[in-house]
Specification:
With 276 residues, the chain is of the alpha+beta class. It has six helices and 18 strands. It has one domain: 4-Layer Sandwich (Glutamine Phosphoribosylpyrophosphate, subunit 1, domain 1), CATH 3.60.20. The chain is globular, with a radius of gyration of 19 Å.
């Protein structure tokens, strides 16, 4: 199953308190913002399925969307796996295999090359995703958004959803600490989740301080899987909770998952009709 967690990169302009969206699809809600005592990175944790008409019909929560690469933090919206391997496994492998780079750009370039060489990811596949990186360079806070084959966007605040604009009340520059900013963002996340059910789950808040020291302001017990097939089997065997929004959602999701398993060389006969 190819989970789509698609989003857009937005850039706050000057001292305005709203954000200007780029014209790409939406879904995942990520916010990265410079605060008085560090950088705050937040994400929702929902992964969802939509039908051919783009109607959401099922979802799971507690999926990780922020990862460490080198000494920086990477938030991603787009696919959650490359070549059937989840990003928590991919980033762990990347971090064990590389020397630490001093800049966001050089680290991200290494990460893209790693995906291409080890997981045979193409530029076309990469370009389906949006990335936000955050951390400190020369003791200065840096937040940069990447449309993979496009030009980086650097700003003291980046977010992945235009849906936050009506509720955004944080000035630029931000006069608040990370904890104060988190307290402002939490009700915004809650409001957005009521308007768009593809956004939701426990909100994850991460604080990055000078020296790229990281602390979790709000912890989440993430659902971690190494391979996509592991996740599919956990759902089919009733080991992972799924929220279904319509009467036929279970049946529809089962069909999607079984077809996805077939792409990994699995067969429908391995799973009883009563497993879902």
């Amino acid at each position: 199953m190819h989970l789509k967690l698609i989003a857009i990169v937005l850039m706050c302009i000057s001292t305005r308190t709203s954000c200007q969206p780029l014209p790409v699809p939406h879904g995942t809600l990520i916010v990265a913002i410079v605060c008085t005592d560090g950088i705050l990175i937040a994400s929702d944790t929902r992964a969802s399925w939509k039908d051919d008409n783009k109607v959401l019909f099922a979802y799971v929560d507690s999926f990780q969307k922020i990862f460490r690469i080198g000494k920086f933090q990477l938030a991603i919206s787009g696919v959650s796996t490359f070549n059937g391997i989840y990003l928590n496994e991919i980033t762990d492998s990347f971090n064990k295999s590389i020397s630490v780079e001093s800049t966001l750009l050089s680290t991200f370039d290494k990460f893209k090359n790693f995906l291409k060489e080890k997981y045979h990811v193409t530029d076309v596949e990469l370009d389906k995703n949006k990335f936000i990186l955050a951390g400190y360079e020369n003791n200065l806070p840096v937040i940069t958004g990447f449309e993979t084959l496009g030009k980086p966007v650097r700003s003291p605040v980046l977010t992945s959803e235009a849906i936050v604009n009506p509720y955004w009340r944080i000035p630029n520059p931000n006069p608040y600490t990370c904890v104060e900013t988190m307290n402002i963002l939490e009700p915004i996340y809650q409001k957005c989740s009521t308007l768009d059910k593809s956004i939701g789950g426990p909100t994850y808040f991460l604080k990055v301080q000078p020296g790229n020291r990281v602390s979790e302001l709000k912890k989440v017990s993430f659902k971690h899987f190494r391979k996509e097939t592991d996740f599919i089997k956990a759902i089919l065997n009733g080991e992972t909770e799924v929220t279904y929004l319509f009467k036929e959602s279970k049946k529809a999701l089962k069909g999607i998952l079984l077809r996805r398993l077939n792409t990994f060389g699995k067969t429908r006969q391995q799973y009883s009709q009563n497993n879902l």
